[in-house]
Design brief:
The chain contains 15 helices and ten strands. It has a six-stranded mixed β-sheet with strand order 1-2-10-7-8-9, with helices on both faces. The chain has a four-stranded parallel β-sheet with strand order 5-4-3-6, with helices on both faces. The longest helix is centred in the middle third of the chain and has 15 residues. The protein is globular. The structure holds ligand F0G. Ligand F0G binds next to helix 4 and helix 9.
């Protein structure tokens, strides 16, 4: 059978009607990979990573974008617009290209990973670089979308949340239960809102008996929810979550409070450490922002949180290939240059080989 994507698969849980186009680029159905090594450091029963970087444009945004675009088409819209730290713009640009919608993306000047910018460029979006941060770009697109009747595809659009909640459905469908804890990075706070909605809906349909605790993590230099007020000049190496005034702030707090979870923050060096451990010990290359979920888990475990007997899922929101500069700037890896001469090559190999 053809893979018709997540709108088709979960249409009974989505506001789909006869005029909603069932469009897809094969989004969703991402791998849930069991930890081989890091679960031992954490001391939990089981740790899994959901690799959202396996979506068509390399991030979880495709789940929400496919549905937001489907609804934009249903509503007769010809244009879509978003503000983005990179991934939303890549996703909007891809679906916009595929379904013939003129796409406008607003990005914070100079603070977007090159891979993501290349995506918006190659898909042919109209790119507007704002001399300001994400929060300012979002304000601008809300106003422009209303003035010119352009479909807004940021997570303020409820169909984005609807599409993204399918991430929870997939976890439950795969493990036949909900995890005890769900660790997730928090930027504009749409994704934590969506996951919580998904789990609650599955519980209402008796697909699960218990709900997970929602454990959101922001970067310390961009942690408005943790400090309880907007951050004017957010700064972090994790540019995807460099956001000072999240649109879904209240819903993130609701997810935290209703689930008995937490929203915490991690320093850039903790993010980088989790980012490198994931690659070195698990073979998983995610982007720095994604590693905030694992960094949060590692932090709590170090502080003595008891995760024995617990099943934990970390959402790894985007693919590491989007941001090669972070590797170049932070990872020490020697590249050995050798002449194309078998004796020299043999000598080099034996000199660097482990005992
Ligand atoms: N991880 C990645 C890789 C992201 O791109 C984002 C958000 C998040 C986590 C946080 O998710 O905003 O739902 O809390 N990126 C947005 C963008 C802001 O424009 O691509 P959130």
């Amino acid at each position: 059978m053809k893979n018709r994507g997540l709108i088709d698969r979960y249409k009974h849980f989505l506001p789909v009607n006869d005029s909603t186009p069932i469009i897809s680029m094969g989004e969703g159905n991402t791998p849930l990979v069991t930890s081989q090594s890091l679960y031992k450091d954490i001391g939990c029963k089981n740790l899994c990573f959901k690799l959202e970087g396996s979506n068509p444009t390399g991030s979880f945004k495709d789940r929400g974008m496919v549905f937001a675009v489907s609804k934009a088409i249903e509503e007769g819209k010809k244009r879509i617009i978003c503000a983005s730290t990179g991934n939303t713009s890549a996703s909007a640009a891809a679906y916009g290209a595929r379904y013939g919608l003129e796409t406008f993306v607003f990005i914070p000047d100079g603070k977007i990973a090159m891979g993501k910018l290349s995506q918006a460029m190659i898909y042919g979006a109209k790119i507007i670089s704002i001399k300001g941060n994400f929060d300012e770009a979002l304000k601008a697109v809300i106003s422009i979308s209303e003035e010119f009747n352009i479909g807004l595809v940021n997570s303020l659009n409820p169909y984005r949340i609807e599409g993204q909640k399918t991430g929870s459905f997939e976890i439950v469908d795969e493990i036949n239960d909900s995890p005890d804890y769900l660790f997730i990075p928090v930027g504009n706070a749409g994704n934590i809102t969506a996951y919580w909605k998904g789990f609650k809906e599955y519980k209402n349909h008796n697909k699960i008996k218990k709900l997970p605790k929602m454990m959101g993590f922001q970067a310390a230099g961009a942690a408005p929810i943790v400090i309880g007020k907007p951050v004017k000049n957010p700064e972090t190496i994790a540019t995807a979550i460099r956001i000072g005034n999240p649109a879904s702030w209240e819903n993130a707090e609701k997810a935290r409070d209703e689930s008995g979870g937490t929203i915490g923050m991690v320093e850039d060096k903790e993010i980088l450490s989790a980012y490198m451990k994931l690659s070195n010990e698990e073979g998983i290359f995610c982007e720095p922002s994604s590693a905030a979920s694992l960094a949060g888990l590692m932090k709590l475990s170090k502080e003595g949180f008891d995760f024995r007997d617990k099943n934990i899922v970390c959402i790894l929101t985007g693919n590491g290939l989007k941001d090669p500069a972070t590797v170049k700037d932070n990872v020490v890896s020697e590249i050995f240059k050798v002449d194309s001469d078998m004796n020299k090559i043999r000598h080099k190999i034996t000199s660097i080989m482990k005992e």
